[in-house]
Amino acid sequence: MAKLAPLEEALLNGDSSVNNNSDPKTRENDNLTGYSNAGFFSILTFSWISPLISLGNEKALDHEDLPLLSINDSAYGIYPTFRNKLESECGSARRVTTLKLAKVLFLSTWQGILLSGLIAFLYACSSYVGPFLIDIFVQYLNGEHKFKNEGYILAMTFVAAKLVEFLSERHSMFMFQLVGVRMQSELVAMIYAKGLNLSSQSKDCHSAGEIINLMTVDAERIGEFSWYMHQPWLCVLQIALALLILYSSVGVASLAALAATVIVVLVNLPVASSQQKFQRKVMEFKDKRMKATSEILNNMRILKLQAWEMKFLSKIIELRKTEEIWIKKFLVGSVFIRFLFHNAPTCVAVVTFGTCVLVGIPLESGKVLSALATFRILQMPVNTLPDTISMIARTKVSLDRIASFLCLDELQTDVVEKLPWGSSDKAIELVDGNFSWDLSSSNATLKNINLTVFHGMRVAVCGTVGSGKSSLLSCIIGEVPKISGTLKICGTKAYVSQSPWIQSGKIEDNILFGKEMEREKYEKVLRDGRITQSGKYNEILKTGTDFMELVGAHKAALSSIKSLERRPTFKTSSTSKEETNSISDSELELNVENIYDQNDKSDDTVEPHGQLVQEEEREKGRVGFTVYWKYIITAYGGALVPFILLSQLLTVGLQVASNYWMTVATSVSETAEPAIGNFTLMVVYVALAIGSSIFTFSRAFLTVLAGYKTATILFNKMHLCVFRAPISFFDATPSGRILNRASTDQSKLDMDISNIGWAVTFNLVQLLGNIAVISQAVWQVFIILMPVMAACLWYQQYYSASARELARLVGTCQAPVIQHFSETISGSTTIRSFEQESRFNDINMKLIDRYSQPKLYSATAMEWLNFRLDILSTLTFAFCLVFLISFPNSMIAPGIAGLAVTYGLNLNALQANVVWFLCNLENKIISVERILQYTSLPSEAPLVIKDNQPDNSWPSSGDVHLRDLQVRYAPHLPIVLRGLTCTFTAGAKTGIVGRTGSGKTTLVQTLFRLIEPVAGHIVIDRINISLIGIHDLRSRLSIIPQDPTMFEGTVRANLDPLEEYTDEKIWEVLDLCQLGDEVRKKDGKLDSKGVTF
Which residues belong to any copy of the ABC transporter domain (predicted)? Predict the structure, then answer.
């Protein structure tokens, strides 16, 4: 059996070896570190994730190191419940609405949503304890002691409230992520299952690229909405609590604060409505771009052979420009929203204090500080409100899109009546069958078909091109909608697709195709399928022979496995009448099976260890500084960076100055006389507030401008490099990896990374401002601040090693989900024919869980870090309180001490923000890292060499001379063509004959310079083709692809993508191909959609 070992090597990188919950080693790992098995204290402190973080400091984490998901968090456990609830709610898949889909999502995760809501409620209440106590604390420092040890009791209350606050915040964040992962898993599994059963008409309306967008962008966005789902009612609760505290501090002036808050919210409504429209348009044009990109990547070999790739690149760029119009509008709207809500607390403060002055309410420093602390906390819900409104709009769009997709037509389930095995002597019985690919069309595809095939019969369907051979076979396997008639099938069936299809995994897996291994039968398939005659797998790889040359054997293997069953079986395939004229019955079946076997595309980049497609490249260790630097200087050479930093410094500086001014300019108590008049007090405060607002706007605008420009430049650069990459890159790179970068990673560049990056510096500046204010009252804070900061840095470094690898695993584990779906869509007919839908759904759910694992544990690790940093910042805050209470009041002004406590209340939130944005940036910047990988791909030879361009008439005769030609597929592989010398005379019809792996395809690819020779040269009409541009070469040669391919667009665009020929010439070509009459029947003639053919 050793001789079969090479067949067990992975052909396409092993998605067939995904984690299984029954794996004992992994299960042991789950018992040690799993969330579901953790105790109360471990859950409370997130210690259950500590072993994983510790392991990440010892080695670069791999997926095998991650604990398994519990059944309640895995796609296996939650998808069946979600599907059943959706079917129960809607009755039929075609009756899904946005509201019903949202309802079922809620019902399927209601426990997590309810628990996270309760924890968020606790967080909201505890966060306002500090502002309520500040006025009491200032009066205590001013000498008003109401009972013994009042100061220490106040300090304990402050600290206890902070402990409850950060504990509830950390666990609410974790629960949000957990709910989000569950929702995303449910939706991706549902979209996949729907895509597997789409009718052909629905597939025409939704390409694989569009559906991939639903899985990668829309489903992920709905999952992320879990972070925002409680914000609407939390915002109302927090505003209500803020008004209560304000009423106790400033009386009826709190009504003015309420009015100002309501006005700010109302002003935002039309902007939010516009944002929803802009987001819908962004997704609409992103879908079009991804559809075109997916189509181009799947046919890149054809484009390069025809020298069309740059023309199709220009189409992608044009689609992107249209998408950018709406991205710009969305980003401008986000600037306005951020400006409005970042300044809302300041606006409310101005209105509140101004009302106090007008109605004669005295402003005391304690009450002012209590109000300022309230405004500062109120800033959080008010600042998240724009993101919440934007997210609601974006989520509504995503729900609409997914609900619309789920309503698409599926294949009819009643087309074929399956009879029990042995119940009839007829394998196929078709009576008065009428079928149509398009049920809305008045013309049926096949009319009044009657066919009977008995068991054991060998049948060939013959006919001219377009006569309906393939449609008949599609009817038999249930792919064409039935109008009328009966179709009965008795026995099993095997189906051989006209276009070669192979799934990722091992050769053995492709042969077995879900069947259990039976060694005797397996060896018979290898012999009968002639796979063993092609040579050992390693030898095949080393000679550069592409595995597609084994697809014929793969097809025969699939059929043979079924036919070896001791039950009646029939085969389906097609051949033309002309091809049957000179072949015997025994030869016909072989012809039928192998008619498309000669699709000789070559594997240019086979590695020595025997994988056609290698594992996706994943950087390890810290994200390099060069990635950040390249991102910063991409837009305008980094010229905007100093202006953004200056705007942030001035914004924070003016905010601190305004608060400091209100503290020192007001009296400590009612009996004290204010040093500054009310008019001067408000004029200075308003001036500082206006200055802060101006720089807030400039910061938001410049941030968006820099981010948009960077995203645009990197998009263009990546796509240019991908389209100019050699064909070996596409052979070794599944299209899902490229689509993942063009969709998910590009979306992060467009919308997220710039804002997150500059949020790090802004929160850092705010943190430094807070420390500066605290040190004015308690300089001794540096005694504890230094070791605390050192501990924070140590924790951050300890955490980062694991966080980086988890974030990278998130990126690399998403691509297999996309790739598997793309693969499934292309082979859906084969999958359904062999009734393998259940197995492929299982594989999909395993891949979803592999993606959910690092995503969930990455978020958990961040909460692990924030929990420990919160403890350290609370320790610093407690030290400040104890110091202020323990020292004589004369040393520190009560107002300044109260200001220090006010800023101390926000210390842990700012510290958590810095770490959260920093870690989130490091996670998101991986998208930049991944895109930059594709901006430095090796390129093909120049398209045109101006100094060495052939004449327009070249080649005039067509003499081809090969002189000592030597070719290899990669530098480390042996030479495939060894010193080949021959001549093809002009006008001669030459056929190249040879066994599999003999170099036929290699020679053709070398002629088109898809592979460059290492020695020797090819001369065509006295010109060495290696010395001219590849477009000059390929545009003068012609090749007919063996697989018929039509691109999205018109008939004219498919026949003449470069727009070089007149309509008369196009009609002439169509008539020569006997397609002219068919095109003339269409309403649009040459402008009719090519997909209808």
Answer: 428-662
- SS3 string, 705-716, reads HHHHHHHHHHHH
Q: What is the DSSP string of 1029-1045?
A: -HHHHHTTS----SS--
Cα four-point dihedral sign 74, 76, 82, 83: positive
- Under a CB-based contact definition with an 8 Å cutoff, are residues 446 and 433 in contact? yes
960, 965, 971, 976: CA torsion to nearest 10:
100
The phi, psi pair for 1017, rounded to 5°, reads -160, 165
- Average pLDDT (144-168) is 86
What Å distances lie between residue 845 and 191, 509, 817, 822, CA to CA? 12, 18, 9, 15
Q: Which of 43-57, 110-124, 492-506, 1003-1017 has the lowest mean pLDDT?
A: 492-506
- In whole angstroms, give the CA distance from residue 169 to residue 742: 35
Q: What is the rounded CA–CA span in Å between residue 1018 and residue 1012?
A: 10
Please report the DSSP string for 483-495 in residue order. EEEEEEEESEEEE
In sequence order, which ranges of 197-252 are alpha helices (DSSP H)? 200-205, 208-213, 219-224, 231-250
- Band of residue 757 on the pLDDT scale cut at 50, 70, 90: confident
Length of the chain: 1093
If DSSP codes are grouped into helix, strand and coil, which group holds residue 1023? strand
Please indicate, yes or no, whether the overall pTM of this predicted structure exceeds 0.90.
Answer: no
Q: Could you tell me which residues come within 8 angstroms of residue 177 by beta carbon, excluding any fewer than 6 positions away?
A: 226, 227, 856, 859, 860
Residues contacting 71, CB < 8 A, separation 6+: 21, 77
Rounded to whole angstroms, the Cα distance separating 394 from 281 reads 11
Q: Does residue 643 register a pLDDT over 90?
A: yes
Cβ 188 vs Cβ 866: under 8 Å: no
Find the helix or strand (DSSP H, E) in which 435 lies.
Answer: strand 426-435
Give the H/E segment covering residue 418.
strand 417-419
Lowest mean pLDDT among 704-708, 754-758, 1039-1043: 1039-1043
Q: Which helix or strand (DSSP H or E) is residue 718 part of?
A: helix 678-723
Cite the DSSP H helix spans in 827-938: 828-833, 837-886, 894-905, 907-933
pLDDT in tens, 306-364: 888 998 999 999 999 999 999 999 999 888 888 877 787 788 888 888 888 888 888 87
Q: What span, in angstroms and rounded, lies between the C-alpha atoms of 464 and 577?
A: 7
Phi-psi region of 437 (alpha: psi -120 to 50; beta: other; left: phi over 0): alpha
